[in-house]
Amino acid sequence: DGGITQSPKYLFRKEGQNVTLSCEQNLNHDAMYWYRQDPGQGLRLIYYSQIVNDFQKGDIAEGYSVSREKKESFPLTVTSAQKNPTAFYLCASRPGTTFNEQYFGPGTRLTVT
Amino acid sequence: AQSVTQLDSQVPVFEEAPVELRCNYSSSVSVYLFWYVQYPNQGLQLLLKYLSGSTLVKGINGFEAEFNKSQTSFHLRKPSVHISDTAEYFCAVSGPLIYNQGGKLIFGQGTELSVKP
Description:
Strand content of chain A: over 45%
Largest sheet of chain A: 7 strands, mixed
Number of helices of chain B: 0
Helix content of chain B: under 10%
Order of helices and strands of chain B: EEEEEEEEEEEE
Radius of gyration of chain B: 14 Å
Order of helices and strands of chain A: EEEEEEEEEEE
Oligomer: heterodimer
Helix content of chain A: under 10%
Shape of chain A: globular
Largest interface: A-B, 28 and 27 residues
Number of strands of chain B: 12
Distance between the termini of chain A: 36 Å
Radius of gyration of chain A: 13 Å
Structural class of chain B: mainly beta
């Protein structure tokens, strides 16, 4: 089955630790995205990547980092510099066509205490 | 710049009643419009999309939406809802890649649809 996988589903960390969230897709999509979701705030874009070895900051990139070494993978690191990291994180991908429909993974809920 | 406003944060409705979830957008260029559904602790699933052509768009699970350019709206409707439609619904806007080279989506705040028996 083709799709997007995010692991783990739930993640717990202590404050001050970096943590990396996994996102893998086997849809052969060119573009990938990371969003953060907080109650009542919709989805906010953290980073996106249109091709391998290239990525751009979204609206709330501070305290996060990404890499895109392979087309299939777009991991997100939440660093200790992120002041309020507890949230639901969603990864998405988009085929390299003229249309902008995005496909979403199941999400990772990160709790930092 | 583009933006999306979902006019209702919560919509309670009884089972088998009709429902409308409202979405207004602003954009200086032509738009693509989307409705996504999110069940608790899950990712987003595409319900329907407007890219061009007919302004009435039909999606999955019996939902439909109408693109109204003059009113800059893209309201989502279903004539008879089921308990299983209880979820959060997101409206999103984007534009052609020549204006939006990242293919980014701008999301509304979401509307929680609660269907009661």
